[in-house]
């Protein structure tokens, strides 16, 4: 008998084509492409889908337009948009709907053409009368403030930040789907063009087109899928602020709360996790999340990642696909991070596969360290 209650399981995952899309491609095209691939991965069809969860910054009515495009009429739908953590939030909502019997097969999807169109079209910023007069270059300026404060309080260095980028690149070199194909050194990061002190261009994520999809269903239905189901063991959500000027402490995020909720739901602790997917729009974020999720003490994140500790062969594998820094970052990254955790548990990651991965955690971050959502996945052996 299982020791942990399984509310739902992931049975299919897939990306769309990633990188630079052909002219005329829309975000909905990429969502649909990923959705069809994820359903095929699961051994399901569009006719099976009765729950639809969509976030995009390029369409006002994501669930409506994707449902129309795919020709489906879901009983449950959700367009929650809280930035890059939206998809972990969708997963939490899908669990509730499946457990309540409101739907049985939930499709979570995302697509973006952020590289092909200007940033103002792909993700137009909200006007803030308190910050806009100062003309900050957001979001990078906000993350630079967090990085600078962390350096001031805890002695974190630019070399520590660079270690995050180098680890991501080393993982990406093992991933055929990753955008970046050239080695990267700490010195390369330090000598790169400065964008917002202390963050250079190599401390910042890629800007690419792409999307992804995930199929979630009941445990009973999952047993009839094409591949080994990956169980959702815990989810947690937290909101802290909207604008960086209103973040109470630039060195501490509400990932502390989302992580605690996910671990409590899973009946687990950080030591139980073998692989992490941490939102890495900038090199400071994995450092903050390692601390706030409980993998190292507050202030020790920079030293924790040193010496290749989170790269291939390190003590804790982080962002094994190459992350948003070297694999793909199409505007919002959270869904792609969850896809990687599922594949690691399935043992499908080839040269970057982490042996004995039965529990993996994916953490999403939205806006300017504003929304934090955590998801914990496990194999049957983790139960």
From TrEMBL:
Coiled coil: none annotated. GO terms for molecular function: acetyl-CoA C-acyltransferase activity. Pfam families: Thiolase_C_1. InterPro entries: Thiolase (IPR002155), Thiolase-like (IPR016039), Thiolase_C_2 (IPR055140). Residues 236-378 form the Thiolase C-terminal domain. Gene3D superfamilies: 3.40.47.10. SUPFAM superfamilies: Thiolase-like. NCBIfam families: PRK06158.1. This is Thiolase. The lineage of its organism: Bacteria, Pseudomonadati, Pseudomonadota, Betaproteobacteria, Burkholderiales.
């Amino acid at each position: 008998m299982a020791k942990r209650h399984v509310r739902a399981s992931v049975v299919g995952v897939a990306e769309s084509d990633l990188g630079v899309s052909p002219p005329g491609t829309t975000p909905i095209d990429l969502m649909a492409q990923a959705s069809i691939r994820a359903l095929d991965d699961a051994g399901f069809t569009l006719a099976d889908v009765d729950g639809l969860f969509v976030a995009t910054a390029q369409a006002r009515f994501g669930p409506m337009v994707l449902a129309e495009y795919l020709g489906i009429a879901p009983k449950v739908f959700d367009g929650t948009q809280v930035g890059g953590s939206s998809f972990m939030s969708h997963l939490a909502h899908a669990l509730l709907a499946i457990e309540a019997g409101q739907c049985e097969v939930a499709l979570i999807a995302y697509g973006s053409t952020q590289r092909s169109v200007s940033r103002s079209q792909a993700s137009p910023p909200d006007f803030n009368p308190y910050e806009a007069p100062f003309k900050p270059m957001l979001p990078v300026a906000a993350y630079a403030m967090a990085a600078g404060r962390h350096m001031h309080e805890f002695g974190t260095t630019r070399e520590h930040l660079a270690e995050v980028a180098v680890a991501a690149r080393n993982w990406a070199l093992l991933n055929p789907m990753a955008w970046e194909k050239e080695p990267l050194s700490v010195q390369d990061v330090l000598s790169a063009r400065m964008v917002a002190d202390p963050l250079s261009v190599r401390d910042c994520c890629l800007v690419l087109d792409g999307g992804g999809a995930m199929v979630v269903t009941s445990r009973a239905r999952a047993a009839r899928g094409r591949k080994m189901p990956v169980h959702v063991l815990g989810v947690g959500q937290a909101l802290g602020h909207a604008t960086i000027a209103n973040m109470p402490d630039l060195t501490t995020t509400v990932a502390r709360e989302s992580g605690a909720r996910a671990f409590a739901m899973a009946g687990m602790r950080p030591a139980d996790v073998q692989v992490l997917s941490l939102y890495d729009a900038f090199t400071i974020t994995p450092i903050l999340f390692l601390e706030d999720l409980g993998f190292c003490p507050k202030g020790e994140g920079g030293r924790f990642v040193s010496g290749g500790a989170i790269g291939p062969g390190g003590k804790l594998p982080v962002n094994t696909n190459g992350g948003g820094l070297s694999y793909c970052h199409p505007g919002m990254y959270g869904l792609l991070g969850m896809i990687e955790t599922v594949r690691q548990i399935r043992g499908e990651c080839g040269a970057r596969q982490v042996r004995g991965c039965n529990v993996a955690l994916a953490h999403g971050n939205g806006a300017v360290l504003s929304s934090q959502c955590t998801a914990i996945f496990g194999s049957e052996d983790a139960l």
